[in-house]
Amino acid sequence: MEKRTVAIAADHAGYALKEALKVRLAEAGFGVIDAGTDSEASCDYPVYAEAGCRKVLDGEAELCILVCGTGAGMSIAANKIPGIRAAACSDVFTARHIRLHNDANALCIGARVVGEGLAWELVSAFLSSGFEGGKHARRVGLITALEEKGRSSGQ
Ligand code: RB5
């Protein structure tokens, strides 16, 4: 079976958790593309939201994991990128359902909100769930239409 590859990126607040998740992902058999940052030096999360999401949009990675202090900044930034559907999660039910119902391609985690154990459960739920399609595909299509509306109105 072909190896699944995921991208992971973080700002300084998420750096340590990113490093821990990278180890767990590799142990679980995933290919991992690290899109930065590479230290705990202060940096700007939108830069790394884009770097991680770019790997998905370029087809190098199937899904993306973004870590900042709260998960909120990463999700706000990532959702500005056409083609990205990102959500900040701190419970396993939501982490599963953003794949099942929203076809999310980016999971955002707050390193100041959840510990490493729960973060790994979130990642595991996200990566092991697939989009259910059906009525959910219509709704995701409407999200894409919103993106296109934003583009054509010059946003
Ligand atoms: C950095 O201090 C913090 O603001 C950032 O990691 C994130 O939580 C923003 O949403």
> Which regions contain 5 or more consecutive residues with pLDDT less than 50?
none
Structural class: alpha/beta
CATH H-tier superfamily: Sugar-phosphate isomerase, RpiB/LacA/LacB
Largest sheet geometry:
5 strands, parallel
Rg, please?
Answer: 15 Å
Give the CA-CA distance, first to last residue: 42 Å
- Total DSSP helices: 6
Please tell me the overall pLDDT. 97
CATH architecture term:
3-Layer(aba) Sandwich
Shape: globular
Estimated helix fraction: 40-55%
Spatial strand order of the main sheet: 2-1-3-5-4
CATH topology term = Ribose 5-phosphate Isomerase B, Chain: A
One letter per element, helices H and strands E, the order comes to: EHEHEHEHEHH
CATH class placement: Alpha Beta
- Say how many strands there are: 5
Approximately how much beta-strand content do the residues carry? 15-25%
Q: Give every kind of bound small molecule, once each.
A: D-ribose
Total tally of structural domains: 1
List keywords for this structure.
155 residues; alpha/beta; 5-stranded parallel sheet; binds D-ribose
Describe this structure in words.
This protein is α/β, with parallel strands linked by helices. The chain has a single domain, classed as Sugar-phosphate isomerase, RpiB/LacA/LacB (Ribose 5-phosphate Isomerase B, Chain: A), CATH 3.40.1400.10. Helix content is about 45%, strand content about 15%. It is built from six helices and five strands; from the N terminus they run βαβαβαβαβαα. A five-stranded parallel beta sheet has the order 2-1-3-5-4, sandwiched between helices. Helix 1 crosses helix 5, helix 2 crosses helix 3 and helix 4 packs parallel to helix 5. The protein is globular. The model has no long low-confidence stretch (mean pLDDT about 95). The site of D-ribose (RB5) has 8 residues, from helix 3. The site of D-ribose has 8 residues, from helix 3.
